[in-house]
TrEMBL record:
This is NitT/TauT family transport system ATP-binding protein. Gene3D superfamilies: P-loop containing nucleotide triphosphate hydrolases. It holds the Pfam family ABC_tran. One of its GO terms (molecular function) is ATP binding. Keywords: ATP-binding, Nucleotide-binding, Translocase, Transport. SUPFAM superfamilies: P-loop containing nucleoside triphosphate hydrolases. The keyword Magnesium does not apply. Residues 3-234 form the ABC transporter domain.
Amino acid sequence: MFLEFEDTGKRFGEATENEFEVFKGVNISIENNQFVSILGPSGCGKSTLLSMVAGLEDTSEGTIKLEGQEITGPDPERGMVFQQPSLFPWLTVRENVMFPLKKKRSKKEAEARAEHFLKMVHLSSSSSRYTYELSGGMQQRVAIARALAMDPKVLLMDEPFGALDEQTRHILHRELLSIWEETRKTILFVTHSIQEAIKLSDRVIVMGTRPGRIIADFSIDVPRPRARDDENVIGWEKHVMELLEKEIDKVLKEELDNESVSYN
Ligand SMILES: Nc1ncnc2c1ncn2[C@@H]1O[C@H](COP(=O)(O)OP(=O)(O)OP(=O)(O)O)[C@@H](O)[C@H]1O
């Protein structure tokens, strides 16, 4: 299997009373080239799971393996795109994409590679501009080009379009799908949006919370492009929504119960 979680668990804090278990017993097998989204209520551990694949957080239990190799730290084979693009404002668009490439490649090679990926995200005409001169959507495209230019085996995306307006998000969905079709990178995509997950993914994994765990794993077998009013798309959205609503209601009820205890 390409990317494999085996009985993976995560705890924060020391093994004392302030220890907090985010999730445990997570088992997921992901095939190469798949576009997989992770949905779940706030705090269930979606970003933590992604950070563990990135190697930014360690695993407390079990393993995560990429092509059979256990993940033990960050590596360019796993590229990350965050909600905030975190670009260098003192560098141009091209220089931002070139920056991580310069360690291993000549300047000329890095430049050619940066231009190639900037073209892929439709930004070649802005490559000499500074990133602070760009809109939020354009900045996120630079971040995607920068991650792709490293030629990762897996692209990890943590709510990459969460801060963008609806129209820009729609355009970037189209672009991301066309990039995915061209590069066939395996994508692990965290989102809060059911519509986004159903529109983009081969597979949608739904996490529950308290304790964090996988509660459903769906293959979305609707041909792309997926129109919003396609009855199969609407059917999937409704199905996932009902599942998530139950989970969110459970969290709200627990929070209200806890509050009423602390008031008494
Ligand atoms: N470094 C940390 N130290 C302690 N607890 C943490 C740390 N990072 C995350 N957590 C806790 O782990 C839980 C999961 O957080 P995480 O950000 O992964 O959730 P999420 O599902 O991505 O949430 P959201 O959808 O709101 O972004 C939360 O309760 C959070 O407070």
